[in-house]
Structure formats: structure tokens, C-alpha cells
Design goal:
Layout (H helix, E strand, L loop, with lengths): L1 E6 L6 H11 L5 E6 L5 H9 L4 E3 L6 H15 L3 E9 L13 H8 L3 E6 L5 H13 L5 E9 L2 H15 L3 E6 L19 H8 L1
Parallel strand pairs: 1-4, 1-5, 2-3, 2-4, 5-6, 6-7
Helix pairs in contact: 1-2, 5-6
Amino acid sequence: MKVVLAGTGSAVGKTTISTGIMKALQDENVQPFKVGPDFIDPSYHTIATGNVSRNLDSFFMDEFQIINSFERAMKISKSNMGIIEGVRGLYEGISPISDIGNTASIAKALDAPVVLLMDSRSLVKSAAAVVLGFKALDPDVRIEGVILNKVKGPRHFKKAKESVEKLANVPVIGGIPRNDEIAVEERHLGLVPALEKEKINRNIE
């Protein structure tokens, strides 16, 4: 099994949600991956799963290398479940028109389904429009689920879920209320210091 967790953009909660899912499935021996050359987010994955997170990058790697790297990591960890956290928005890469360096290219190379993560603040019917746009841009990218982040409450979640499922025809597999206390801090330099691991583990739990 493999799945790509991709965002509609930056700062939608990709790392927080991805790491939480990885931790919840830790007993399934999850092998984590990160799209792009990022070395900070993978450190969270490694803490959550106990397996070293690997990078997949279509700017530096061709399709064969992406597949080979994925399969090699899965074999080393003896895992049957690969979870790939995307980078920025699903289609954001080095070009405004090509797939080089973006998350979509990794999903297509691995023939992996995509779960789209979106910041749903103040969105109900518009949430469906966002999902429809992402589906229409590249039909070869299999968007098979949506997670609504930063929902205001049960009523908001119910309405946004109905909108996405009925108008965009994609199942909403979860909704997460806004909680700034568990959000992963944005970092620009440096690995997660060992002294912070206890705090990170508490947040992940």
C-alpha cells in the first residue's frame, strides 16, 4: 500500500497531519517519505515511525530512480505501507507548467493515490470548487480522498463534507479542528535538536 498526502498549498497542515497519520499507523511499520530535498520534515517522520524517512525528488531523480528509491526503502524497512508527504501545493514545482519537482510527478511515477489536504477555514461550497480544480488540472493524478483541516466545528465539517462529496465526487475521509498547539513549527535551518524530541513526541501523541 502507498499513498501521497498532498496539500492544496503551503501551510495547510501537511506535516502535522502526515506525521499524525504515520504515528497512528506506527504498529503497521510505516515507511515514510518526503517529496523534495527537505531534511526537516523527514526528521518528524522518523521520530513518529521509527523508520528513516526518505526523500523523493523529480528534479534530481528520473522516474526509474524514484521507483527504485521507493522500493529499496520499503525493502530495507520490511514495510508494506509507504506514506509520502508532499511539498507545497500538489502541482507546485520549479516550472509554472511542467511537473518537474512537484508532488504530482511523484504520485504519477509511483502510480499512488493522492489524499488532498486543505485548509477549510471559511470554505463550504468553495471547498468543492478547489477539489474540482485540482482534479481537472491533471486527470492522471488520482485524487481519491480529502482531509479538511482547520474546520470550525461539527456543523462546518458536515456542510463542507457534503459539498465536496456531492459536487466534486471525492470522499472526505476526515476533518481536523483548528488547534495551534499541535501545529508543527516552521523551520528554515537545522535538524530537530535531540532535546526537542520529547516535546515533539507529546505533540504527535
